[in-house]
Amino acid sequence: MSTTAVRDAAEYESRLQQYYFERAEEARAVRVGEKDVSEQAAIVASYRDLFTRPQIEALREAEAAADAEERERLYRLRKTCEAGVISAEIAEQEDALENAILGASVTFHGEDMPLRSAQARLAVLDAYTDREELGELERAASAAFNHDRRTLLEAREQLEAEVTGDPDPVARNEEEKAISLRELERVLVAASDATTDAFDTLRNTWFEKLLGSKREAQPSNAHVHYLRRLSPLESTYTKDAAVDICLASTLALGFDMMAIPNIRLDLEDRPQKNPRACVIPSNPPEVVHLITRAQGGLSDYQAFMHEAGHALHYAGVDPRLPFTFRSISRDHALTEIYSYIFEAVTREPGWHALHFGLSDAQAEENAQATLFLEALLYRRYTAKLRYELGFWSAFAEERGRSERDYSSALTTATGIRYDRRNYLADMDAGFYSADYLRAWIRSAQLRTFLLREVGEDWWRSEATGDILRELFLEGTRPTSEEMAGRLGFDPLDTGPLVEDLSAA
Ligand SMILES: [Zn+2]
Q1: Mean of pLDDT values over 87-96
Q2: Of the residues 114, 283, 437, 479, which has the fewest C-beta atoms closer than 10 A?
Q3: Is the separation of the CB atoms in 468 and 254 below 8 Å?
């Protein structure tokens, strides 16, 4: 082909749908261990014509001439095209870094282990000092890639500025998310400050119970996975019961996951399978994969419920919507509301009593542990957003060379010691932290709405399922902020979130 075809919006959308499907199915096959070689590059090459600068221009022109509803669809197609152009130009560099990290290893107590396995191991090491030791090895090995991480970040930033025509990374993300990141940060920090006392009480209790009395005043982040798994309570939250209890929990909400043909469940424990739970929406609502592999501990249950929320959302979209509004969103803030509300079931004392044979008092106590974890993560992400806003605001001068307040902001917010060397590894592209944080605000609003409409039993009532089903129908079309309107809240109203986080 000498020159690449520029397609009109309808043709573009239809070919994009095929491309998404092939890439998603390939990713699934590798993830679950059906294939041991990823052939994404071949798929990308055969769809190369989708991601060109003339195509960006054609979509931009169509967008300028369209009415409001159509304009949104065209906007998302254009942003997808832009992202594809950027990815294509930087893919080789990204793969090189990814593969170098995959090839790195650490030696712990005489055993060589891949760097990537060290984190999983940290979750199950019972001795505090072992976790400290392996954590330090992991941080040092990871920091060796900081030069390459920064070079890549700089290359990507330069490309994004050029392709989108906007040199300001903060403004660019604000435009795409259609929010003010700084206003968001302001209300998040206020909510974090308002719940500091409640968090300190929870932290003192649960550090003592989970990390023991010989811990340091500020344990390092090496312990976070161990905390999240509630490893000392592993005999309650067993690996074997995870799937059945989670299926029963979603069934109570009116979703029989075993009987929804569009959701392809892969819940088996196979050694080649990646243990991280995920949803791959290959073609919503027709083909949605939910993949989990239980490892033992409460985090299995939370991960399954989280992914169930995503899967039910994608499998519940109105099939009459155009592909763009079934599959493409401006960001991840909407679908994370649904994952969060399903995960919130695991913070209900009644859920712990019902499924694990605990006394009411024990169930209350364990539910409080989940609240502690929730508050810890919320505070970590709020501090991360503050740090990331500073990092990207200064990027034009600093080029990512300074770790700024990464360590102090996260350590002060959580009481866990975050090492300054992590400042590049601990950053997701495109202010993903802001999407999670919007979902935190919104899912707390949704829970308050459900308490009002359904009652205290919202977490095990089919009435909740009926309400969610209506929202799922709208697909990926609404923004998180529009969802606030459906629930009767102001988008930045953190009242319900503050109430949840102070509930101990
Ligand atoms: Zn999620």
Answers
A1: 87
A2: 114
A3: no
